[in-house]
Structure formats: structure tokens, C-alpha cells
Amino acid sequence: MNRAIVLTGSGSAAIAVVRIEGAGTSDFLRDCFDRPVKQGFCVYGRIHDGERVIDDVMIAMKDNHADLNLHGGIWIVQEVLNLLTRRGFQIITWSPEQTWGSDGEDELEQEIAAYLPLAKTELAVNVLLNQPLAWKQIDWNNHEQLQEILTDRTLDILLHPPSVAIVGLPNVGKSTLANQLFGQERSITADVPGTTRDWVGELANVDGLVVKLIDTPGQRVTSDTIETRAIAAANGVIATAELIVIVIDPTQEVEEQKKLVQRWPEALLVINKSDLAEWNGNGVRTAASLGTGMDELRHAIRCYFDVLNIDPHKPRCWTDRQRTQIENILRANSPQNH
Question: Is there a contact between 74 and 11 (Cβ–Cβ < 8 Å)?
């Protein structure tokens, strides 16, 4: 089968790499590249579709595949993929479980290469790249160690950002708090109830842990039809969030805010505007407009997802194949099988 996959990320970039393999690779390079290609060498030339030149490229041929190093414009990449399709190549859509196209001497290294695009922080990259050595140190007869590896979700969480919904009454400082976590202004803030008319979702780096941060409109009953619909839509998103952060404003009416705490009892409480008034209860105390208390909030979020003091040298599993491998070994070594 002739197949092709884009190894680099989506969107425009300086360079895009398309890997091709199959019986048709040599024919494609002979007919659509203006220079002869040699195994183990990088060759510079032009890819063309008939008389039309598509791009200047660098091609590296190794074993049974060739890497086409293109200029990374979206149009150029799509034109090359269209040409490959007409030449009988199947375009493989990248996904984390799709390890074809990933370099590596064994399945574990191929999985590391396949998941590397999901590692969006230095911490995630460090943990992932340490796994080959960590796996070599596994004692496959140690039942407790295997169970610990199987239940450890740290690398999963680092690679797949959990969702964190910020909720509260109007004008408690949710959007200001979100902007502090985003590290830039993504949500409109104003001292007017109902400023956030829809939920805003964006990735935020919380000291090495990437989360999908969701800023939601204020929880209130309103005659504004658009805002009512926005609140209803946001409640659906909140219901699926892995962590809910309730923002309390001690300068506002207490009973309505306590209802939110009762509604989401497992939520993380943030007492915002703590520089202006006291709140009788536990919670992370912040003054988002001043930027105070944000380190404590980031610590609390990381603590909730159990990603504090991560040892990057510990073996972890993050794919179904790895989990199945460990489960099979545990099953084979269980007392009932002896």
C-alpha cells in the first residue's frame, strides 16, 4: 500500500515534512522530482505536477520511506497531498494512536515520537523522553510496581489537557482570574454583570500542566435571552469539566454563593477580592486584579490533578498497547495461574 502522512503540526510553519512509503514511492520520485534520489542522502530539488512546479524541497530517502521537507505553507502542503492522492497514495490522518511515520527502534520509541506533538510543556517533554530508560528499569516480576505504573495517570494528564471550568456569580472576577491563568487577556472584563456572554475555552500552562481553561458567564437569573442561553450552554460544558473552580466574592451576597458551593460540593473554592473583605470558609485566597494568590491557585490546580513533584525518570504508561501489555503480565503472574 502506498501511503503518506504529514509528520509536522497543522497550520502554517517554516517547514512541513510529509513521509511517503510503498511500492509507488520510487515511481513518484522519478516522475515528480527533478533530481535522482539516493538512499541515505538528502537531495535538494523541485517537486512538480507535470510542467507546474509546486515547491523547492529537500528529500531524504531511508529504508522503505522518503521524507519530503516542504515549505510549510498550507497551500503547498495541500497541493503535494493532492498530487500524492492522484498518484495512488492513501493520506493517513495523524492521531496519537497512529504510530506509523514515527521513528523509533521499537514500539515504545515509536509511541514516544507519535505522542511528542501532544507534549506542550517542557515538563511533559521531559517525562515522555525519559520513558525508554525508565521502562528498561521495570522489574516485571514486581506486582506492586506494575500496578503502580498501570494506575499512574500523570503522563496521560500531561499529554491530554484536562478541562477546568471557572464558575461564579456575575462580577466576582472570573474573567480577570482566567486572564491571570492564561497569562494574557483572553476574556473581556468589566464591572458590569453579564459581560461574559458565552463560555471561553483556551489552553493555559499552569506551571507545566496544560489545562483547557473555561471561563463561563455569571450564574444568575436574567431576562436577557442571549445571556440565558449562554448560561444554559455553559452549564453543559461545566457538567463535563474535570475540575470546577468556584470563584467567591466576599463583597457580594453570601447566600447565593453558598448555593453554588452546595451545587458543586467537590469544586475548588477561590476566595477572590480577598483584599477587600473576609470570607468565613476555606479556599484559595486571591486578588486577581492585583495578581496576588495566583501561585497558590496554580499549586492547588496541580495538586488536584496529582502532578506535583513529578519524577520524570519513573516508568509510566500512556497508550492502550502499554496498558494491555502490563495487564497481561499481571494476569499471567497472578496466584491463580500458578
Answer: yes
Burial of residue 332, with CB atoms counted within 10 A of its CB: 0-12 exposed, 13-18 middle, 19 or more buried? exposed
CB burial of residue 129 (10 Å; 0-12, 13-18, 19+): middle
Dist CA 59 CA 45 (whole Å): 8
Chain position carrying cell 522518503: 66
Q: Which one, of 215, 217, 214, lies nearest residue 231 by Cα?
A: 217
Q: Which amino acid would we find at residue 337?
A: N
In order along the chain (338 residues), what is the average pLDDT of each group of 10 residues?
82 80 92 92 93 94 87 89 94 67 76 85 94 95 95 94 91 88 55 43 87 73 51 70 94 89 94 92 93 95 94 94 94 71
B/e letters for 138-158, b = 16+ CB within 10 Å, e = fewer, are eeeeeeebbeebeebbbbebb
Site of grid cell 466576599: 250
Look up residue 269 and give its amino acid: L
- pTM recorded for the entire structure: 0.67
What is the C-alpha to C-alpha distance for residues 138 and 15, in angstroms, rounded to an integer?
A: 38
pLDDT value, residue 123: 93
DSSP label of 94: P
**What span, in angstroms and rounded, lies between the C-alpha atoms of 131 and 158?**
14
Which ranges of the chain would DSSP assign to H, the alpha helix? 25-32, 74-86, 107-115, 122-129, 131-136, 143-151, 154-159, 174-182, 225-240, 254-263, 294-304, 320-332
Q: Where are the alpha helices (DSSP H) in 43-121?
A: 74-86, 107-115
Q: What is the pLDDT of residue 175?
A: 85
CB neighbour list of residue 272: distance below 8 Å, 6 or more residues apart = 172, 173, 176, 177, 247, 248, 249, 286, 287, 288
